[in-house]
Amino acid sequence: MPVLHTLRRDARGLLLVLLAAAALHTAPASAAAADEPGWTAEPAAGAAAARPGGARPYFYLEGAPAAVLEDRLALTNTTGQERTVTLRGADAYNTADGALAARPAASGAPAGAGSWFSFGAGATVKIPPRTRAVVPFTVTVPPASPPGDHPAAVIAAEAGREVGVRVHLRVSGPTLAALTVEDVAVRGRGAAAVVAYTLVNRGNVALAPELDIRADGVFGEVPGRGPRTLPVELLPGQRVELSEPWPGAPVFDRVRVRVTVTAPGGARAGAAASAWFVPWRAAGWTGLGGTASAALFLVRRRGPWRRPADGGAPGGPSGKPGATTPAPEHELTGASS
Description:
Blueprint: E1 3-6, H1 11-26, H2 31-35, E2 39-43, E3 59-63, E4 68-77, E5 83-94, E6 100-102, E7 117-118, E8 124-127, E9 131-140, E10 148-149, E11 152-158, E12 161-171, E13 179-187, E14 194-201, E15 210-217, E16 220-229, E17 239-245, E18 253-263, E19 267-277, H3 280-285, H4 290-295, E20 299-301, E21 330-333
Parallel strand pairs: 3-12, 12-21
Antiparallel strand pairs: 1-9, 2-4, 4-9, 5-6, 5-8, 5-11, 6-21, 7-9, 10-12, 11-12, 13-14, 14-17, 15-16, 15-18, 18-19, 19-20
């Protein structure tokens, strides 16, 4: 059963409540406030807290195959009415542009680590007004689970609103950091030029990739983009399609652009593409009309062309793309590792 803790109120807190009530009578509520669910979900504070003061931005659990892992979720009702919240485990994945999301209930039963969660009698929690409920749960790792990261989330839902709390779940054993860079292409021209590419995590641990773009033209080296850490956490088996602004793209040149990506753990990969940049007027003066002029530039990719098997959202930890159009995604709370 969930352990309930009533929130304490002191004189200062009461004063803040009275001031807030007065503000409600003098100004209309904002649309953002109207969208608030009236409750929060987060990891309960404990000895394993990852931050000073007991606050944890996400769950971190690790164990061997067949292990039973335990933790606790804190649900806080900030309103004056009772709330009924249901809990479930869900698989986590990268969206096509690299964001983290959890599979919605409408997509069916979890196929990955989301199916390892159990909330027992706490799967449905009634939270009295202004009360905090601490709900224990377990994660049972299947005996044949492969080592590495198995992205998951705890989903709390009420009246169609869902909140996802990320779970960093790792099965003990050998780890491999590996990735590939695919489908490099140059698009646009001038200040609007971008370098597009696809990253695929070929290992069994989540990666924080660092990007470096270099370019060489007929007239010498062309300014690229120096090394920088991407704001993406690439989960095992996932594929993301990214692009990088290239304000230093030449106006008239033939260039070879090389994209190199590295990540902690020894992961390193690269791929290249060649491109002709031809301005409109130069194309007309030199007789480079027709197809070349209309296209502005011609891109020739190096290496085989690869693309996902279909246009669906990226798959779960197995890396298989979804066969049907996915339901709306739920972004996860918590910081990246």
